[in-house]
Amino acid sequence: MAVTIKSEREIELMRESCKILAEVHLKLGEAIKPGISTWEIDHLGENLIRSYGCVPNFLNYNGYPASICVSVNDEVVHGIPSKERILMEGDIVSLDAGLIYKGYHSDAARTYPVGRVSAQAAKLIEVTKQSFFEGIKYARAGCHLHDISNAIDAYCSQYGYGIVRDLVGHGIGTHLHEEPQIPNFRQWRKGIRLRPGMTLAIEPMINMGSCYVEWLDDDWTVVTEDGSLSAHYENTVLITEGDPEILTLLPDQTLI
Predict the structure, then answer these.
(1) Strand-pair partners of 169
(2) Are 153 and 185 in contact (CB under 8 A)?
(3) What are the φ and ψ backbone dihedral angles of 230, each rounded to 5 degrees?
(4) What CATH number did the domain enclosing 194 receive?
(5) Which of 75, 128, 174, 222 has a CB 3.0–4.6 Å from the CB of 231, allowing a cystine?
(6) Is the CB of residue 221 less than 8 Å from the CB of residue 215?
(7) What residues make up the domain containing 166?
(8) Strand 178-182 with 169-171, pairing
(9) pTM given for the model
(10) Does 253 fall in a domain?
(11) pLDDT digits (tens, 9 = 90+) for 123-159
(12) Domain presence at residue 3
């Protein structure tokens, strides 16, 4: 599949899809607290998505059994919600969610502290989020795709964190996963030249320890190989003639 350039009409549909997802994430973030189960988070997320007349795009995607990926502590991504998995004070939890609005996908992820967390955990969350903003300094027409990758790597590596290599960002539009793939680690080739109308899901996945991960027996949940904490931050971004437009942030959320 070639990298798609969205028309003005498609961009408007992407904007609305992403705006709804930003509102869903805002409400999910407000629900994070010690004692809530990961199943309750998923249940809330699916109900919120459907309340907007949208469809959760993760549900049954290649067999994934939930609407919200809820990943706790050493779980990097694709954690499967469960009534038995209860969030505890000091945990960190990553919520990865997406939806379909009038045929157009959106995708975003956030990592939250559960109550009070260690300084090291808070730093990991902060650096992972900031690495996204470092990367999108290069999400501009005329830059190359891997300028984004290299900026994320340069920022995270100074903290000694492991940058996940087995999972990457992606293009997005009428399909959840489109070309191009967007690594979060240094690349020696330039990658494609960015053009206005491209929509990209840029998503650093950063481990406190090594970069290595493994899959659990459920064939979905990805965990750090060394048991260290992992954080995830993602937004759907539009390449424009000027500054990139972060579609999955509300106007007053520029640094969330």
Answers:
(1) 182
(2) yes
(3) -135, 145
(4) 3.90.230.10
(5) 128
(6) yes
(7) 8-246
(8) antiparallel
(9) 0.96
(10) no
(11) 999 999 999 999 999 999 999 999 999 999 999 999 9
(12) no
